[in-house]
Structure formats: structure tokens, C-alpha cells
From TrEMBL:
InterPro entries: dTDP_dehydrorham_reduct, Epimerase_deHydtase, NAD(P)-bd_dom_sf. GO terms for molecular function: methionine adenosyltransferase regulator activity. This is NAD-dependent epimerase/dehydratase domain-containing protein. It comes from the Eukaryota. GO terms for cellular component: methionine adenosyltransferase complex. Coiled coil: none annotated.
Length: 295
């Protein structure tokens, strides 16, 4: 799986959502060959057909179900969630394994949780800590998916949490926060995509395998994001904060909150000359780009 040089690689992407298209744009800017598959990953036949037809050297799976407008959707669509997040993921990873193809799976870090008090005293979760959180159907599907695939030798599994980018997409954590008059004053891990996604492709190109906490170093707070939005793009922005219990009372299912250790990710990317930016630098860069875009 590691014999192909980066220049000769052919990427095949499953999924056509927000993160998939951000990765596609990076690959195109780098002059790489990228094929966007329209296959339904729930269908093993469709997945296998795409792999045999295009003969990719690298596969990236961004296809998943999280629901609209939020993960509460999964509570009423349990079968659809299982078919996409468990069966579909297994189809992709297993068919790639059979064909000797390296696969990067975009997973979730929402398989851990701590209370607000515990977060203050517990160390960040490492990749070696056994995942356990299944308080929502979405998290349960992600947990079962990771447990099912983590021993595959062709797999790079990247755990994303609260993705952040320089746009106002509905799945962007910034875009979601800006819609609310009241926000929860929470601090946890987040994935600043503009800095981290190129790193994901570096790992894929070099056929790195294993599980990585794919989050930005440091702790990101909702209040900090609103303050940066006010500074850079919404000078008239105002908001109120409320406690987590008040938010949970309005939701169908509880949410996870956690801080993830990024030591393994930073060390591995540094081996390839790629530096992961710390929280504040990465966030400032995102809001500066948004300001330049006039968002």
C-alpha cells in the first residue's frame, strides 16, 4: 500500500458533502487526480464496482449520516443511521482491504464525554483510551463503527469534532453558532479544517494507518468563537450564554463534550514536515479569511 509515490496516486472519494468538497478542492489545487464517487456506500456492490472501475491508490470516505438540522434526526432514523455509519463504513474499509487499497475514514470524536467538572481535572483523551460514549444514536453508530473497523491494517481513522472552516456552511460550527441568540458557554476540542485537512492528505499519501485524534491542539470555547466573529466579521454581534443543562432540556438526545490529546497527530505530521497550528493561530486565520471574503 505504501509503494505508490505521491505524484502517481489516484484518489477516490466517497461522499459529496461539505468536508469531502473541501478536501477535493485541496487535492485539485495540488494538481492531484481525484474522483468523486456517486456510489451509495450502503451497497457493497456499488463500492466494489467503483474500486474495480477506477483502480484508485488511495480512498477517502467522507460519506456518513449525522442528520438535519442536527444529530437528533438520528434518533428517529436509526436504521438509516446504521446503514450509513456502520454498514456503509464497513463496506468501504473491507472492500479496500480485500483489494489492498489504503483508506482514510473520516470518523468522529463524539465517542467520549466528560461532565464540565470532570473536564477541568481529567487529562485529554488519547487514542489508546477505550471509547465509551453512546448517549445519542449518532454517537452509538460512530462508536460501533470504530470498534468494527479499527483493526484493519489498511485503515487511517481520523476522529473529527466540531468542524470549523472559513465559510458559513450549515455544518460549520461557526455558522451554527451565529444563528443562535443564546449559546452554551462550553469548552472542548474542535477541528479547524483549513489547517488540518491538508495534513489528512499528507497522511493518506504516505499510507499512514491507525487512529488519530484529528482535532486542533488546545481547547476551543463557544464564547471565544463569538468574540472572534465580532472582531473580524460581525462587529454588531451580541449573544447571551446559558448553561449546558438548559440546552440539553431542548434536545432529544444528550451531546458529548470532550478534549482530545493531539500529541500523536502532531508528532506524525511533523515527520513529513507538516506543522499543526495551535488553537488561537488556526482560529485567527479562519476569521481573517472570512473577513477577506466579506462573509
Amino acid at each position: 500500500m505504501g509503494s505508490n509515490t505521491p505524484e502517481s496516486q489516484i484518489f477516490l472519494m466517497f461522499g459529496n458533502g461539505w468536508i469531502a468538497n473541501l478536501m477535493k478542492d485541496i487535492l485539485l489545487e495540488q494538481g492531484k487526480t481525484i474522483i468523486m464517487s456517486k456510489a451509495r456506500i450502503e451497497s457493497r456492490e456499488q463500492v466494489l464496482s467503483e474500486l474495480t472501475k477506477h483502480k484508485p491508490t488511495r480512498v477517502i470516505n467522507c460519506a456518513s449520516t449525522r442528520g438535519t438540522p442536527n444529530v437528533d434526526w438520528c434518533e428517529d432514523h436509526k436504521v438509516e443511521t446504521v446503514r450509513s455509519n456502520i454498514l456503509g463504513v464497513l463496506n468501504v474499509v473491507d472492500t479496500c482491504f480485500q483489494l489492498g487499497i489504503h483508506v482514510t475514514q473520516i470518523g468522529s470524536a463524539c465517542i467520549y464525554t466528560l461532565s464540565e467538572e470532570e473536564i477541568k481535572h481529567q487529562p485529554p483523551f488519547k487514542e489508546t483510551d477505550e471509547p465509551f460514549y453512546q448517549g445519542s444514536w449518532y454517537s452509538r453508530s460512530r462508536l460501533l463503527s470504530e470498534l468494527s473497523i479499527r483493526h484493519y491494517s489498511n485503515l487511517l481513522l481520523l476522529r473529527i469534532r466540531l468542524p470549523i472552516a472559513a465559510d458559513l456552511h450549515k455544518n460549520n460550527h461557526i455558522g451554527r453558532l451565529l444563528k443562535y441568540e443564546k449559546i452554551v458557554d462550553l469548552t472542548g476540542s474542535g477541528t479547524v479544517l483549513p489547517n488540518l485537512l491538508p495534513g489528512a492528505l499528507v497522511l493518506s499519501e504516505h499510507a499512514v494507518t491507525g487512529i488519530y485524534n484529528f482535532v486542533t491542539p488546545g481547547q476551543i470555547s463557544n464564547v471565544e468563537l463569538m468574540e472572534l466573529a465580532k472582531k473580524y466579521i460581525r462587529p454588531d454581534l451580541t449573544w447571551q450564554t446559558f448553561v449546558l443543562d438548559d440546552m440539553l432540556s431542548t434536545l432529544r438526545a444528550p451531546r458529548s463534550n470532550c478534549i482530545m490529546d493531539t500529541t500523536k497527530l502532531q508528532k506524525k505530521l511533523r515527520e513529513y514536515g507538516y506543522e499543526v497550528k495551535e488553537r488561537r493561530e488556526a482560529l485567527e486565520e479562519v476569521f481573517q479569511i472570512m473577513a477577506e471574503k466579506g462573509l
